Amino acid sequence: MILKGRAISKGSGRGELLVSPAPISFLSGVDPETGIVIEKGHPLEGESVAGRVLAFPYGKGSTVGSYVIYALAQNGRAPAAIINTEAEAIIAVGAIIAGIPMIDSLPADLSDLPGGSIVTVDGDTGELACDDAT
Amino acid sequence: MYLDAEDEKILSGEFGETRQKMMEILVALGRVYNAEKLVPIASAQVSGASYKTIGKWGLEWLSTLDARVAVPTVLNPIGMPRDEWRDLDGITPEFAHQQEAVLTAYHRLGIRMECTCTPYYLQRTEYGEHLAWSESSAVAYANSVIGARTNREGGPSALAAAIIGKTPFYGLHIVANRRPGVVVEVEAGDSLHADHYGAIGYLAGKEVGNRIPFITGIRPGRDQLKALGAAMAATGAVALYHVEKITPETRVFTFETEGLERISVGLQDIEDLFETMDVDAVAIGCPHCSPDELREIGDLLTGKRTTKPLLVFVARSVARDNQDLVAAIERSGAMVVPDTCMVVSPAMDHYKAIMVDSGKALAYVPGMCGALARLGTRKECIEVATS
Predict the structure, then answer these.
(1) Is B281-386 a domain of CATH 1.10.510.10?
(2) pLDDT of amino acid B129
(3) Which CATH fold topology does B5-175 show?
């Protein structure tokens, strides 16, 4: 299955799809050293974003969040790719300066994406490729 | 989004990795906000200048960049006066060292070493010009008082615009998006005082949120407009406001205000914000003082001595160009401090209660300095600092 969205940050990333129903604030919400979500009460609290394809509605919080995404990449703990329902400046800029492929505006709700399966994001074409369920 | 041939070359990496990254940022923002093209800018003002804000990782990213800005660019206030940080309590050598590293990283990019929220005192800014400015009060002033056009940029997006010399054409760059969405009626008549404007902005911003207000019932000058807009940008997210018959776009365009929600601000609401409370310091210059404001403060201080710390914040080049006014203020024992401000500097952190003359400072001092804030007129501020 291939879903076509909008290309935001170039490159290709493959990993296990981790879906958050809630927005994410990277500043104070994700530990830049470990990649673990530390925001209290967040649906992904305790999960690691490292190496996964991270899908969430949009970013929230301070614009300094862009630098936290950069820090995750420098520490080798960044997501393999990012999918947003609707991209905004903090996450888009963070993905670009960190070199993380990113897409948004898929023709499907995040809750309909196959969380837990291996997917590939193409940040040049805006496509999400899901390995077909067996 | 349409890119011209040169933009395409930058995007493909022909002009180096840094410019390519910066163009990628502008293209992504253009997509996010559905911009049809890029528009050339006259100047940029970059936030994320204080080490306290961007931290180790922001500094590390800046240090990797290798390009020069294409337009005159200044920085937002930093955490200390650049050269005179030892004069202020609360600035550690470690902090100063990191702050200097951030400045060095920006300096390498060709950014002027001016750290101010009032770039319009340094760089002539004209009606209708497109800009990429970051700081909320500067954005409000540029859009509203000058009639220039800027969105409120984040640090990296302003930097990208500065290096490329262009910004995506969306939001407040488009005239149709600059129409008012709410009316604010100030009902104070002739009792309104020049020092009331910060309080009006503080009250109005809470109601206005991120809408564009059309304000009636006031006749502010430039310094009062500055105080008004800064406070509305702090308690709301106001990036543009119109004042009937005062701000330039109300004289160029005819704005339809029929059917808009109407908010009223009365004299009693304004006066209620001016409280009485013991303070251990007085801070003026949020946003940074104009030459006229420096003169007024100097006049109020004539023949007086400070009994409490009195800090006056200003852009470095405004202080340099008005040395006689600075000397008149400092003769009293007050300090005129460049490059930084009461909101971003750790130097204000050790006071328990700070008196301010600014609606913006009234909104930010409690959270940013951990101190109580008391609003006073400029005259009251000087009286408290010298009694």
Answers:
(1) no
(2) 98
(3) Aconitase; domain 3 (3.30.499)
